[in-house]
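Researcher: We're teaching a course module on how sequence relates to structure. For the next exercise, students receive a sequence and then see the predicted structure as tokens, so they can try to spot secondary structure elements on their own. Here is the exercise chain.
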Amino acid sequence: MAVYFDHRVETPENCEEPSQLMWHPALSILAVASRNTTTGGNVNIYLQQGENVENCRVERTHLATMLCWHPIKPVLALGWENGEVLLLSHPSGDQNVLPSTHTARITLLEWSSSGSRLVTGDQSGALAVWKVDARGRLQGYYLVKHTYNSPITYCIFKPASPGDDIKMLARASVSGDENALDMFSWKGAPLKMGPQEGLAFYVSTADGKVHSVDEHGKTNMLLSMDGAIKKMFYLEARAALTVITETMMLSQYTLGPEGEAQEFQKVKLSSKSGQSVDIVWAQNSLVVTASGEQHIRLWDLERNENYALSLDETLGFERGEMVNCVSYCLGKEILAAGTSHGRIAMWKMALHPDRSRGDTKAQWKLQTPTEIEGNVIQLQWGSSLNLLAANNSSTVVILHEHVMSAHCSQQVAAVQLTPTQLSITQFHTGLHLALQSEMHIKGVCVTKDSATVWSGKQVTVFEMLGAALHNKGSFPCDSHVVDVHGENLYTVEPNRVQIRTPQGTVKQLLTFSKSEGNPMLLSVCQSYLVVGTDTSHIRVFDLTRRDAKAHCNAKNLTDQIPNLGALRSVKCNANGSQVSILITQVNGRPDQKVYFYDIEMDTVTHFDFFTGRPSSGISQPEDGERQQFQESELSGRCPVSHFWDESEPRLFVCETVPISSETSSTGYWDTVDVSVVTLFCTQEHGLLLQDCYPKPAGLQALLALDVPYYYFSCKEVSATSAPANQSQPSRGSVALFPQMVSRRALRDFEGLENCDKSTRDAMLNFSFYLTVGHMDEAFKSIKLIKSKAVWENMARMCVKTRRLDVARVCLGNMGNARAAKALKEAEAEPEPEAHIAALAIQLGMLEDAEKLYKSCQRYDLLNNLYQAAGQCEKALEIAENHDRIHLRTTYYNYARYLESMGDKSLALANYEKSETHRVDVPRMLQDDPTTLEVYVNRMKDKNLYKWWAQYLESQSEMDSALDFYESAQDYLSLVRVHCYMGNIQKACEIAIDTGDRAASYHLARHYESHDDIKQAVHFYTRAQAYNNAIRLCKENGLDDQLMNLALLSNPEDMMEAACYYEEKGIHMDRAVSLYHKAGYVSKALEVAFATEQFAALQMVAEDLNESSDPALLARCSEFFIQHSQFKRAVELLIAAKKYPQALELCVNENLTITEEFAEKMTATDSKDLSEEAHKELLEKIAECCVRQGNYHLASKKFTQAGNKHKAMRALLKSGDTERIILFANVCRQKELFIMAANYLQSVDWKNPEILKTIIAFYTKGRAPHLLAGFYETRAQVEIDDYQSYEKALDALSDAVKCLSKVKNSDGQHEAKLAELQRKITLIKKFSHARRLKTNSENSEEALSICESLLEEPELDAAVRVGDVFGFVIDHYCQHGNFKEAYTKMQELQKVIPAQNIKYYVKQASLDGLQKHMGFIMNSGDHKHNEKEDDEVEEDLNIP
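Model: And here is the predicted structure for the students to work with:
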């Protein structure tokens, strides 16, 4: 809670009317321009309390038109009507007039962001840019000057483009960031510093144009609008320029890299016509305007929303009060507006820390106004967030925000109401006093008999005598802090503390050395004074004697507390053994810890509210679950105030707020989560949490702790100002002001606020030992207490501390058996919180029980709690959101409650929601038949129709009952009533038309009772009551209908009908069929064989399977064999597991063994056949399949029998090459590989894949001799078919390699190898000769080689003799030696007379021999030729 002290500026005599005011951006100095009707204009500078700086005064005969402070230096730029511009320095008063540049009224003064440039503009459109040095002194003439031929209206500098942040880079470098280190070294890219300030700017003129001026002074027109431009704002996030004209037209432009502007938004702002408009820019995207209306308008440009904030008459504003001006404080997020009735309205952004920034006016909260005189026409916030200057046309008032003072001690509390008023409450007498002071109160300190106030310059002591206040003494004193003990006042001044009398006489000086620093903080508790200094030293003094004595040596906390910037607050406990300390860190932020200095042990410990734990080494005897709960409740917070109990030295309390709001003003704490934390602090046990609870609503700040109460300041109940017809109290007099302080009992003392001292001490000891965990000591401290109220209070304490063991003892001493029973029953629940909640319910602590159930998410129990407490709306809400499984039950219970309360209409609605209305609504309304009938007709529910029809039937209203039975579609009741009334025909129609089984059954019973058997059987059949129909058929001999009914009925009825037929000895085929349908197959077969019902037997046998009786299967198979149905017989034999007989039957009767038969005969369990018998059966089946040509199935069965050789033979017979290859690869047996390879030689092995497979199989079969034989065969094929001796040579070489791998070779093998080597040699010679023939020089050598080959014995085994002769003959013919060629031809005919010579000798050679030698082939050759030709023709003619 804060107030504003108003300081009127000390205006010189010749200053009549202030026209402008401006705060320095960084310093607390205010410039005010005034006008005087006789002397002209003047400018004065004032300090923050309105003191006039006489040296800094400027007077001219002309009026000052513009003021603008240097952004850093205390230099003020002044613009005058005659075009003069000067720079005024503070505090020296030096004046520096700029060279004469402007001749018209100055309309623009604007500094760059760092103050190195000053832009001036006048009414004629002249604009100049000046350079200023770092000390704020002008450097020479202007840098550039432009003339725009229209009055200059506004200027805004463009922010500099962001460069590298040196500070951030430096911090990153120190922390080890290699990239940041590289940027500072030669390794990385050059560091981009960026300009220190933006030197380019935008300037607007009265003709609606905006010009851009770059850093070199070059100007360029950027955009043009209709009307004079009033304001411009630069939205850095979007790189957009916002322009507002005098006609309130707002336009937004995006700025391109080349300086172009593109309009993307245009809107007309609302304003009151004929009034000047004050416009401010807030939150970087919010435009706020005040135009003499009863509200201010806000436009959010980022979200495209707008709204208005109005004055509230309930807060003290008057009807018709207008808002003239507005100012925004970014640091405090406050909008201040000046009104026509001399009030300053303030709207504060009320934003919860865990919510995002909103966009509606609901988040702006209007505060109580501050009143000054006159008509407020101008407002401006100062550089200090606590300063606000207001111009009311006659003077300037500086408002200084001050946190309202408050103090509480010895059951007396004082709270500041206004800058000069206090409200004093004496709790021990019940009196409420008001103190009116002549000075602005900056601090207050109260004792049981006195109230001391001070202003920083004056101290006044008031004595409280009954209901009166008397001025006991007043004296000047510059101390900013004062404390009181008895008749002594303690004030501070440099390096000492003064002990004074109430009249100001100094009785004693407590001096401090230079190293100890200057006293800044004072606090008195009982008879001990603690002093904190600006060098972070503390000293404690004992005040029990006449003179204050040092209680301990000075303690330097800088050595004990890391990161200590300054002391924020120090407090001492009641016996002077502990000092609690709050500090500010070096970075200026409040520390999240409370530090405790133990004077006797000279140690410093702390409790960290960031983690929710005390410092290491301090014992915490809590169980793990409770400690975890405490940490979650306390973590993430920061302490803001702290107090010790005035009489109990162990008890300490502090206020904490979330870390995000630690730096906010105290007024902001009303909207955040403030917690009050109480601790026990002892030397032996350290810091122990005693209690933690959120500050109750309506309370403001914690003032003191005095067992059994906390003391809080609170919001006043009524307005602080008296009514208009009541005079204000005189100075120092008593007035009836509202109470501003509220007491709240400690958790352990709720209900014991008025207990005596012994009980209070016992409760404190009990609470302490309970917190420590010493149960024996805890009970010992309260063993003499007999009051049930005390035990009940301790039981309540156990709910807070979650100590069920202690609670049981308390309940026993209370004699509360019901609560003890409820607690025992609650132990069946798995959650400990549920046990504690049950205890809380028994003690009437429903809110605590509610919180506990929510924490353990037992919403079902919470639902029951709400219902038991009569909070049905909450119960329904919980059931709908969290406990939907009990939603209908909750609705039902609520409906029962409403019914008991007589609210039948609402009960009816809840019965419907619980879906129990079909029963409960008729019950509820049974005494009101008319209402019930209306409800039934309205609901159109079948169940309700039926209920109402039954009610009407009970009243003998049969016709009406029939109508409602029909609406309910209750056909049984319709048939029943019609039968009762004798309308049998109508009943039959209903039963037949609806097909309702119950109706048909009732009608059948009716017919049976009247001996109409035929109709009874018919309707029994329609009702599907077949057993009753069968019963009637048997009793009445209706054999024909009996069969049909039995087939429609269940197996039991079928069995009964079959027995009936069998007993009578008629229709035995029906008996067999019924036995079969009923599942009694054996019985059906037995009857069929006995009565020779072969047609029925055929039908029954179709359903036989493996699960049937084997003997029965065998008997049936014999029957089918006799009737030549061999296939069916085989199936039955297989089902009977007589596999050999089935196989024999297949062989004898030449039945094809299908794969299905084979699988059924072989897919048996081991218990049916032995392994040897199973294999034998498989082989027999396979052999049978071979005989039948089913080689694949035979191979499969041979494989299953384990005889893979026979399986391979069967596959070889099938000729399925792919399966043969696959089978060989799967079996991986040498013999199978060889068999498969031998088979593959019989197919087209010239296929590369087949060739590779043959080689692979022989290799895997380890048969190199067979592989060699394959290669030899392949070589011979290459020679015979293709005359490819080269490929034949390769094949023979491979054959030799294979034979060489054969081990244990005998003589035959050696001979074979030598034969292959000879073949290779001969082929090589012939191949060599053929190659030589291509070269004419070597033709004779080739001929010689061939001649030698012809002499070789058995040449034809390696090289065909015809090929050699053909080579020689061709050679002679090519060289013209036809004679020798003829001789060789004759030799060739002798060697191979039976073969065609054309196979070996080229046709050209034959033609040459015929021409030169007259050689003609013999008839054998000719006939052979003709035969070959015929064979070719025959081959060609194959279709």
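Model: If you want an answer key for the exercise: The radius of gyration is 59 Å. The chain has a mean pLDDT of 81.
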